[in-house]
Amino acid sequence: MTVPSSIFLDRELAPLESISEYLKDERGLTYHEIAVLVGRDDRTIWTCYNRSQKKRAEKPKMLAGAEKSVEIPLDIFKNRTLAPLESIASHLKEAAGMSFHEIAVLLNRDDRTIWTCYNRSQKKMVPN
Q: How far is residue 58's CA from residue 106's CA, in Å, rounded to a whole number?
């Protein structure tokens, strides 16, 4: 299963909040089903979803740039060593062959943030 990269455009939401909201509202999945897909606890998903709903009370849902979207597989989030944004940056850099700037534009983040996330993911993945 995949999620569109456009769900990460809203900087007010953390990546896991965006994933939880999308899968619950758009795909109709339960907290448990989402938790299994992303390798997290049900309570974590419930918390992320509820945080997103509190933040949404103040903000509109759709942002400009949603037409440019890449599908991101959910199984990349099962590696708990990496933060969600590190997983996304690593996947888009390695599997999709995108530049840091392309990833930054796609996710509405600064180029340096993407570079940092990618480099952290690489350091974490080096065997000791």
A: 23
Question: Residue 21 is encoded by which pair of tokens?
Answer: 């909201």
Enter the tokens of residue 111.
């180029």
Residue 125's pLDDT is: 87
Residue 104 confidence (pLDDT) above 70: yes
Please tell me the total count of domains within the chain: 2
Average pLDDT over residues 55-59: 75
CA distances to 21, 54, 71, 126 from 3, rounded to whole Å, are: 11, 22, 5, 27
Asked if residue 67 is part of any domain, the answer here is no
Is 111 part of a structural domain of the chain?
A: yes
Q: In angstroms, what CA-CA distances link 82 with 58, 62, 65, 93?
A: 30, 28, 26, 15
pLDDT band with cut points at 50, 70 and 90 for residue 85: very high
The answer to the question of residue 73 being in a domain is no
Q: d(Cα 23, Cα 71) in Å, to the nearest integer?
A: 13
What is the pLDDT, as a whole number, of residue 126? 80
Distance CA 33, CA 10 (A): 24
